[in-house]
Amino acid sequence: MTHPQERHVTVDEYLQLEGRSVHQRHEYVRGRVYAMSPARLAHQVLAGNLFSALHVRLRGGRCRAFMDGGRVRLEEADMYVYPDVTAVCGRVETEDRYGTETILNPTLVAEVLSPSTERFDRRDKSDGYRQRATLREHLLLAQDRPRVERFLLDGDRWVPSVIEGLDAVLTLSSLGIEIPMAEVYENVDFAAAARRPRRVREREPLPLALVLDPSYATAFTVR
């Protein structure tokens, strides 16, 4: 059965939803709104390790790191997203609307890959990130093994590379720092991550009626 296509959610409607949401975050992708799932512990450990490593190395310099609560606007791609870790060099430019802040000028973004969101992170988010004029580096971190996919802007093209193994060193050229992979993956339980079923699925956008409903609350699923 074919259902009539709903009109797209406007940016204002999305930001109003975010402004009144206390426990649930959402991402905006070209007129569609997606509820985010709370991360598992391994996901949080890995993202926390990377943030801590960046924070220590960037302290006192011109660059700053932010955890996944820092929403980023990807203007060229018409998206508002929450990277797991973001770094900004120079003055942090923000947009403050409906009581919520959005980072406008990311230098580096990192995503911890999860089975339920990997397709979206690799396709929609990655394409959006690489369109952002200020972005210089993009990372995808595996949970089940020490492996980081790194994409570095070189002139007008994105150059991919892979860093693997606990003895390797992750070089972040956009920030001028290096981090041992053993530090990034400290206390990450690879065996537990590998045992988890890979429930790869397409993300479903929220119906427009829910986005506009002031009493809306989303049921959580774990990613």
Summarize the structure.
This protein is an alpha+beta fold and 223 residues long. The protein has helices at residues 11-20, 41-58, 118-131, 181-184, 190-195, 208-212; strands at residues 26-29, 32-35, 63-66, 72-74, 79-81, 85-89, 94-97, 100-103, 108-112, 137-141, 147-154, 157-164, 169-172, 177-180.
Integer count of domains: 1
- CATH fold category name: tt1808, chain A
Let me know the average pLDDT: 88
Q: What distance separates the N and C termini? A: 30 Å
| CATH architect. name | Alpha-Beta Complex
Please count the helical segments: 6
Biggest sheet record: 6 strands, mixed
Placed side by side, the strands forming the largest sheet appear as 3-6-9-10-11-12
CA gyration radius, whole angstroms = 18 Å
Helix residue percentage: 25-40%
- CATH top level is Alpha Beta
Structural class: alpha+beta
Total number of β-strand segments?
14
Low confidence ranges: 218-223
Shape: globular
CATH homologous superfamily placement: tt1808, chain A
SSE pattern: HEEHEEEEEEEHEEEEEHHH
Report the sheet-strand fraction.
Answer: 25-35%
